[in-house]
Each structure stands twice: as C-alpha cells, then as structure tokens.
Specification:
The chain contains 22 helices and ten strands. By secondary structure, the chain is an alpha/beta fold. Among the domains are: about 325 residues, Up-down Bundle (ABC transporter transmembrane region fold); about 80 residues, P-loop containing nucleotide triphosphate hydrolases (Rossmann fold), CATH 3.40.50.300. A six-stranded mixed sheet has the order 6-7-8-3-9-10, sandwiched between helices. Strands 2-1-4-5 form a four-stranded antiparallel sheet, with no helix packed on it. Bound molecules: adenosine-5'-diphosphate (ADP) and magnesium ion.
Length: about 600
C-alpha cells in the first residue's frame, strides 16, 4: 500500500476522521466543556481593547457619545476601567487554561486508545508485510501515533478558536468602522490563494519526511539485528554509508518540509503587515481630516493584530496539520491492512483433537503466480509420527505454516479430525498445537518464563520436567540464576543448541495433541541429539507429530516418512522401505552418509 496521490485530499481527510473520529466520542461531554471555555476565552479577548477606548475617548479626550462616561467622576472612571481590564484578562486566561488542559487530556487519552488498537491490530497481521519494515512499523507506532494525536481534538480546537476570534474581531471592527475593516480584509483572499497553492506541496513534503524517517529506523533496526554478520564480514563502513545516505535523504526531506512551512508562514506575515499598513495609513489620514476619532484608530490598531493573528496562527497550524495528516495516514495504513487469516463465518471453539490431519488438494504460494504447492494431498493418522524430508526450499516449513494457519491455502482444505481448520476460532485451535519453529524465538525474560510461555499456569515442577525432557535442565542449572536467569534479547547469551532446547521444552510443556517441530535437532551435537530423540519417542507417543527432519537420525523415530520435492509429494513410506527403492530419499540419505564419512 502506498501513498495514493489520486485520491483527493478532502476524501483522504474524510477517511481519516471516519476511522479516528470514534476515538473521541467517549469524551464528548468533556469536549463540550472545553468548547465552552474556548468561547469564554475568545469573547474575553474580543472585549480587551474596549476599556482602552473608553479611557482615551471618554475620559481623556471627551469625544464619546456616551453621556454617562462624561458625567462620571473621571478618577473613578479610570479606576473602574483598569479593574475591568484586569477582570477581562483574568477571565480570558482562566478559561484559556481550562480549555488547554481539557483538550490536552482528551487528546492524550484518545491517542492511547488509538495506540492500543494499532498494537492489537499489528498482532493479527501476516508476518513479513511487504510494504513495511519492522523499523518503519515501530516509527508508525511511536512517532506517528504521537504526531497524529493533534488530529483528534487539537486542530478542531485551534481552528475553531482562530475562526471564532477572527469572526468576533471582524464583527466588532465592522461596527467601529466598516471602511477600515474591509481595507484590512482585502488581503485575506490573497492569503487564501497562497495557502491553497502551498498546502499540496506541504502535504507531499510531510509524507516524504515521515517515510524517510521510517527508512532510517529500518536501517537501524536491521543493523541491530544483523550486528554479528556485519562485524564478521567487516561491513561496518558500508553499513555506515548506507545509514548516512538514508539519514541524508531524511534530512533533505525535513529541510524541504521546513522550507515550505517557513516560506508559507513568512508570506502570510508579509501580507498581514501590508494589510496593517493600508489600514493605519488610511486611518491616520482620516484622523487628520477629523473624520475619525484618534481613539478609534488606536482601538483599530489593537484589533488589527487580532485580525491577522488568527490567520497567521491558522497558517502555522496548517503546516503542523500537514505533518499530522501524513502521520495519521501512516497509522491508518496499518489499521487498514486486513488480517489475511480470517475465520469462516460462524467459527466456534475447537474441540479436543484426536489429531488426524488431512491436506485435501491444497494449493498455496506466498506470492501470486508462484505456487509452492499445487494440489498437494496427504493424510496423517491420529497418533502417527511423521517425518517430512526434502531438500531445502521444498516446502517443509510451509506445510507447518499452513497447519498453524500463519497462511491459508489458495485452494483446497486442511482438515483436522475431518473439519476444515478455518471452522475454528484461531486461538482455540492453535492452543492445541505444540510447536518448535525453525527460528526459535526467545524473549528477554527469565528461562522459566520462556518455557512457560505456552502455558502460563504451569507449576515450577512441570517447567523442570519439560526442561529435563528437552535435555535443557543441566545447562539451565549452570546459568547464574538457574531458571530465573533473564535471557538477553532473542536469547543471544545462549548457544543455538541451548536456545533450541528451551524452545523444545516450551513445546513439550504445552502437552498438546498435535506437535509440530521444524528441524528440532539442528544445532545439537550428536550425543545430545541421540538423547533427545529417545525422549521424543516417549513424548510423541499418542500424539500426532510432524517433524521436519534434516538429520536422518531424526527420521528413525518416525512411523512414516513423506518426501517432498519442490512442493510435490514424491515418496512416502518407512525408512527401510524408502531406502530399498531408488529415488530422492535414497539420494538424500546417501549424500548425508557421505558427508558424515568425510567428516
Ligand atoms: N515468507 C515467504 N515469502 C515468499 N516466499 C517464501 C516465504 N517463505 C518461504 N518461501 C518460499 O517457499 C518455498 C518453500 O519454503 P520452505 O517451506 O521454507 O522450505 P523448506 O522446505 O526449506 O522448509 C521456497 O521456495 C521459499 O523461497
Ligand atoms: Mg524450513
């Protein structure tokens, strides 16, 4: 999904509010209060120049048509007007304070809701989304969610405050002198045209800026993950250059965005000064003519500021608005990415499995037009232990992915105990499957917590038993804090074989009726491997087990072997049967024996 320039801006803004609008609905009463505060503060601001006018025209120059001012004691009048001024300012700032506070509270709370929803949504998304890198996704979840916060209430608040101030000012000014007022307003259409011209390029620049930032984050993220490879291949210099290039582009995008914003704001400023000059020049001449009170001109000058300030603020806020819009769209992209895995309508919880698995004419590929399987059919009986054998890239892991519903088939069905797995709620179904993936992921938590991961109510005793079965107990005990040792990120303070054994313990603890293991003995020495296979024999009894086997030692515990070649099932049978006939199995077996002999 990419930034689509063909959709008109108004449509995109509407889309954004359609999705994000509901997040502020729970706070509607507080928003109402905030707007009342806003009204008070704007009204008070509009009253502010009046005491000054009365002071000048009425008390000092005696040029007012209000008789009661002249009649009053001038000293009391001065005192009263000063008090009025103070009261107005206090009212304005108190209301302003509450208005700011309320809007900020609502904005932060609603954003946290958006953040949580986005996070939850991310958890449902297919792995390896083509349009986003993890680094970029992190930026979307942090910076972008924060930058879009102001879209929720802040801009509505600011825009209405500025428009209200503007309208109130125009109203009061027009009552004072409409000629001067229209003179002051004459620059407004020009400002409007300019902002229209600028807004499009500012939006593109803002989008560019956010995208570039995401790319920089991606490079950093990838480098952190690949540090060992980078150091081993001495690629620090190249990686640094790559980073520098990305950072440079991000910098340029930032500068361009600031330049546009700056140019726009300065144009608006210049135009407002032109407007002020027009009004003051014309007004001063009228005072010289005697057709305008000096007090009126003073008040007018004060209002001129109020007339243009909201326009200037509006243009400044529009620049930020563009940023938030770009961020909002990036968050929206995440939310609008439909989870690829959907339950069929009316999906219910999965019953206790016996464990018969059928692939029924399954076709599937990760990318359109590149099928991994075309019409694959096989059947695994409940309780059987199956070994999947085949060259790498044959589709072994993909079979496990489909069984776990990381992906759904293009065509055909996968049945467990005779029911299409899409008929069950995803989680209730996955809960019954124990799994050791090819890349075993460990969390930065204690060893015990990592093992407990699939069964959080497991007792320490169960955890130990599972670790013993996975041949992990001994090395765990030698860790500084035993089972309470907190692992480094990704378990990087353990060896590959140790990580694998913790992942195995995690799967064993689950005690599921279906066990899927992707090359479970990789990274293990042959003594540990033999020991582990002994336990596996016990543990897999009565469970349907699929083991992707790399070493032929693993194959020996299987009841049956399925041999895959480029997504097709080419042979099946027991180890002895398959060895007796010519074919892929024997070729692979002989190649491995040869390897061993040479070693
Ligand atoms: N996430 C993915 N996106 C695109 N293609 C993939 C993905 N994962 C695997 N493949 C492709 O699917 C085919 C089967 O892969 P896999 O099932 O992982 O093989 P293996 O038998 O080694 O486990 C390979 O050609 C691989 O390139
Ligand atoms: Mg694999």
């Amino acid at each position: 999904m990419s930034f689509n320039r063909d959709i008109p801006a108004s449509q995109r803004i509407r889309n954004l509010y359609h999705v994000f609008g509901p997040y502020i609905r729970p706070y509607i009463r507080r928003i109402g209060l905030a707007y009342i505060a806003l009204g008070i503060s704007v009204g008070a601001a509009a009253l502010r120049p009046w005491p000054l006018k009365y002071l000048l025209d009425g008390v000092i120059l005696h040029k007012t048509k209000w008789q009661w001012i002249e009649a009053a004691n001038p000293h009391w009048m001065v005192l009263g007007l000063c008090v009025a001024l103070v009261v107005i300012v206090i009212g304005e700032s108190t209301a302003g304070y509450f208005q700011k506070l309320l809007f900020a509270q609502i904005g932060h709370t609603a954003t946290t809701d958006v953040l949580e929803r986005t996070f939850t949504h991310l958890q449902t998304l297919p792995r390896g989304m083509k349009w986003a890198h993890s680094g970029d996704l992190i930026v979307r979840l942090t910076t972008d969610v924060k930058t879009m916060r102001d879209l929720l209430v802040e801009y509505q608040q600011k825009f209405s405050a500025y428009l209200l101030t503007f309208a109130a000012t125009v109203f009061v000014m027009a009552r004072l002198n409409w000629t001067l007022t229209s003179l002051g307003l004459s620059v407004v259409p020009v400002i409007w045209i300019i902002s229209f011209r600028f807004s499009r390029s500012m939006r593109v620049a803002a989008r560019q800026k956010r995208t570039r930032e995401g790319m920089v984050a991606s490079v950093v993220h990838e480098n952190l993950n690949g540090l060992a490879v980078i150091q081993a291949f001495a690629q620090e210099e190249n990686e640094r250059r790559r980073f520098r290039e990305q950072a440079q582009e991000s910098l340029e995008a930032n500068v361009e965005s600031s330049r546009l914003g700056g140019a726009f704001n300065r144009s608006v400023e210049v135009l407002s000064i032109v407007g002020t000059a027009l009004v003051l020049g014309f007004g001063a001449m009228k005072v010289l003519d005697g057709s305008l009170h000096p007090g009126d001109l003073v008040v007018f000058a004060a209002y001129m500021n109020d007339l243009y300030k909201p326009i200037q603020n509006l243009s400044e806020v529009s620049v930020k608005f563009m940023d938030s819009l770009a961020s909002g769209e990036r968050v929206l992209e995440v939310l609008e990415t439909a989870p690829r895995i959907r339950d069929l309508p009316g999906a219910g919880p999965a019953p206790q499995f016996h464990g018969e698995i059928i692939f029924d004419h399954v076709s599937f590929g990760y990318e359109p037009d590149r099928p991994v399987f075309d019409d694959l059919t096989f059947r695994i009986h409940a309780g059987e232990t199956i070994a999947l054998v085949g060259a790498s890239g044959a589709g072994k892991s993909t079979i496990l992915n489909l069984l776990l519903r990381f992906q759904d088939p293009w065509k055909g069905r996968i049945l467990i105990d005779g029911t299409d797995i899409r008929h069950w709620k995803l989680r209730s179904f996955r809960r019954q499957i124990g799994v050791v993936l090819q890349e075993c992921f460990l969390f930065r938590r204690s060893v015990a917590e990592n093992i407990q991961y699939g069964k959080s109510d497991a007792s320490p005793h169960e955890v130990r038993a599972a670790a013993k079965a996975a041949r992990a107990h001994e090395f765990i005990q030698q860790l500084p804090a035993g089972y309470d040792t907190v692992l480094d990120e990704l378990g990087s303070n353990l060896s590959g074989g140790q990580r694998h054994r913790i992942a195995l313990a995690r799967a064993f603890l689950r005690n599921a009726s279906i066990l899927l293991m992707d090359e479970p003995t990789s990274g293990l020495d042959s003594v540990t491997e033999t020991e582990l296979l002994e336990t596996l024999k016990d543990l897999t009894r009565g469970k349907t087990t699929i083991i992707v086997a790399h070493h032929f030692a693993t194959v020996e515990i299987a009841n049956r072997i399925l041999v895959l070649d480029q997504g097709r099932l080419v042979q099946e049978g027991t180890h002895t049967d398959l060895l007796a006939q010519p074919g892929l199995y024997r070729t692979l077996y002989e190649a491995q024996s040869e390897e061993k002999r040479l070693a």
